[in-house]
Design brief:
With 313 residues, the protein is of the alpha+beta class. The chain has 13 helices and 13 strands. The radius of gyration is 57 Å and the shape is elongated.
């Protein structure tokens, strides 16, 4: 058939309408329409209201201006803290009944009573209620350590005020450190110290003690005490440290302290050795060295006087 014949037998626009219909049929078969309430059609999860804008967010349920209704909130979010599942013996809060049941399966029973709870909780309960250090008052406790002898103690358990006060009183009796020290032990200590110093004195000191005059009478002692009391009542200036140490004071007569020649310390010849200052050890051992030297001289003097070497020969 020629082109002119085809144009005369088929009306104008036939092929264009047929193509549009076939395209619409293909689209409708690939996207099935689901009709809902209110004349709404859904295709692939989208709603179309024929000319009105769609505003749906809750998986197929229409919403107004993007607001999610309160009925769509899960009930788990509504439940507050007071609705949580709680285990009273263990003082534990859980989120669901299943978690609470699985937790209760781990409970054990106390050997001394009907208390039930987790193993760690039951152990603490037994020690505080049925254990060695439970209760109130005084208890005798035996402590056995491997490799050591068994020891027994009487201890105070609990925190009752009367028990604590009794424990404090017994401790004060056993360790009386808070009592004031009396004057008599001080006198005995002073006497013991004087005897110790006398034992270290040499024989020359004994001769010096023998050459001393007898003690003065009580009347003279009382007069001396009265004079000393009178002197103590009168205010005296403190000695000048610079004058006592060096023999002079840069302030001179303007110094507010007392310049007394009798308080000056005599200079020691052995203060310096070969132009060098003596060390601390030499200063500490100076008195012991002097005493040993005196004892050595006394020993030599005794050997000479007793003719000890000739008697041996």
């Amino acid at each position: 058939m020629s082109k002119s014949q085809g144009d005369s037998s088929v009306p104008s626009g036939f092929f264009a309408q047929t193509a549009q219909r076939s395209h619409a049929t293909a689209n409708s078969s690939s996207r099935p329409a689901v009709t809902g309430t209110g004349g709404l059609s859904q295709q692939r999860g989208h709603f179309h209201n024929y000319g009105q804008p769609a505003n749906f967010f809750n998986y197929g349920e229409p919403s107004q201006q993007g607001h999610v209704p309160s009925s769509s909130v899960p009930p788990s979010r509504k439940r507050g803290r007071e609705e949580m599942f709680r285990c009273e013996p263990c003082d534990l809060e859980l989120d669901s009944a299943i978690a609470l049941e699985s937790h209760k399966k781990s409970h054990v029973k106390c050997n001394g009573c009907d208390f039930e709870g987790a193993p760690k909780v039951v152990k603490g309960h037994f020690q505080s209620v049925h254990g060695k250090f439970s209760g109130n008052g005084w208890k005798n406790v035996t402590v056995a350590i491997p490799g050591c002898p068994v020891q027994r103690f009487r201890i105070c358990v609990g925190n009752r005020p009367e028990d604590v006060q009794k424990w404090i009183e017994e401790r004060k009796k056993r360790f009386p450190r808070s009592r004031p020290v009396q004057s008599e032990p001080k006198v005995e200590l002073k006497a013991g110290l004087s005897t110790l110093l006398d034992g270290y004195s040499s024989s020359e000191d004994e001769h010096d003690d023998a050459a001393k005059p007898p003690a003065e009478s009580p009347a003279i002692e009382s007069s001396v005490v009265q004079k000393s009391e009178e002197k103590s009542t009168t205010p005296q200036k403190k000695p000048c440290h610079s004058f006592v140490r060096h023999g002079n004071c840069r302030r001179g007569d303007a110094c507010p302290y007392r310049h007394d020649e009798s308080l000056r310390k005599p200079k020691r010849n052995g203060r310096k050795q070969n132009g060098k200052k003596r060390d601390l050890l030499s200063n500490l051992l100076e008195s012991d060295a002097d005493r040993e030297m005196k004892l050595s001289l006394q020993l030599v003097h005794y050997i000479v006087q007793s003719d000890f070497l000739r008697k041996r020969v």
